[in-house]
Specification:
Elements lengths: L5 E7 L3 H14 L4 E7 L6 H10 L5 E4 L5 H11 L4 E4 L5 E2 L1 H13 L5 E10 L7 E3 L2 H8 L14 E3 L3 H4 L9 H11 L4 E13 L10 H14 L11 H14 L14 H21 L4 E2 L4
Parallel strand pairs: 1-2, 1-4, 2-3, 6-9
Antiparallel strand pairs: 4-8, 5-9, 6-7, 6-8, 9-10
């Protein structure tokens, strides 16, 4: 079948316990004309066997398990495997509102000149899961679409991409650790047709095993300097955006050794974590149900 409306793509490695929560949720509510594509980076924790079982049962549609050359490489493979009109990245330890995602995808299908849609974002730390924070890039999008800045940043956790637009906007830069940050600058600098949804289609969950928590601040800053020059990005009071700073700050706190500061201690029992994720799922659904959201196009 090649006429899928949405391809939900995963790139994962050694994240079995989170996959069992996030992927199971998507499998349970997947609709016709939607596919699930998973790229597994040669996991050693049982993920490969788990995913192969789902493939054999017809619960996921495509699976590739092999070593990769970094996070961006895995996601690029998943995007190239996708067969849907719209591609939606699903991060294995975040929370997604599939109703909001389908609303965004339907808008893109009805407006075929749109290359990508981004939305507002929610974030939370697993050890303080009732303190959900709201984030918006709308003011930066507004300045960009009015020609007041050549590029701006946004997180790809809430990004939807038209598959045929990949020939223009390209793939992730495999030389960047903060690949989503660079990708946002790249897309906007190309003046791609970006639309903005004022609702929330994703909730980013930070914990001590988050990919973001393991990144090096100096390396990211150096890469930020390089990308800032290339994409004429003046920054949001600094060389990296607010949402990136949140990730780095959490990672710095988690990885700091021999200090007297309070460190981030997230729950480790997966039954407890699964219950927290159910709560977070209900919260993003409620936030979206309570809001009056709209789409804003580049040319408005």
């Amino acid at each position: 079948m090649d006429n899928y409306k949405i391809s939900f793509i995963f790139s994962t490695r050694n994240r079995l316990e989170y996959l069992k929560i996030t992927l199971a949720k998507l499998v349970a509510e997947l609709k016709d004309q939607e596919e699930i594509v998973v790229v597994d980076g040669n996991s050693t924790d049982g993920s490969t066997a788990y995913l192969q079982g789902l493939l054999n049962e017809g619960k996921i549609h495509q699976l590739l398990s092999e070593p990769d050359k970094g996070q961006a490489h895995g996601w690029n493979k998943a995007m190239l495997m996708a067969r849907g009109t719209i591609i939606k990245k699903i991060i294995d330890d975040d929370v997604f509102d599939y109703g909001a995602i389908r609303k965004c995808a339907a808008y893109m299908i009805d407006h075929p000149t749109i290359d990508v849609i981004i939305s507002n974002d929610l974030t939370v730390a697993l050890n303080n899961y009732k303190e959900i924070q709201k984030h918006s890039r709308l003011s930066h999008f507004d300045q960009w679409r009015k020609g007041l800045k050549p590029s701006f940043t946004f997180g790809d956790v809430h990004l939807l991409i038209r598959r045929t637009s990949l020939s223009y906007i390209g793939l992730y830069h495999t030389g960047y650790v903060m690949m989503d940050w660079e990708y946002a600058l790249h897309i906007s600098y190309l003046k791609a047709n970006i639309a903005y949804y004022t609702g929330f289609n994703a909730l980013s969950v930070y914990h001590d095993q988050s990919i973001s928590a393991l990144k090096d601040e100096k390396y990211i800053t150096d890469q930020g300097d390089r990308a800032g020059i290339f994409y004429e990005y003046a920054g949001d009071r600094s060389e990296i955006s607010t949402w990136s700073k949140i990730k780095i700050a959490i990672g710095k706190t988690i990885n700091k050794q021999n200090n007297k500061e309070v460190t981030l201690h997230a729950p480790t029992d997966m039954k407890e974590i699964a219950t927290i994720y159910q709560y977070l799922q209900s919260q993003i659904a409620q936030i979206n149900a309570d809001g009056d959201f709209k789409f804003i196009e580049k040319g408005e």
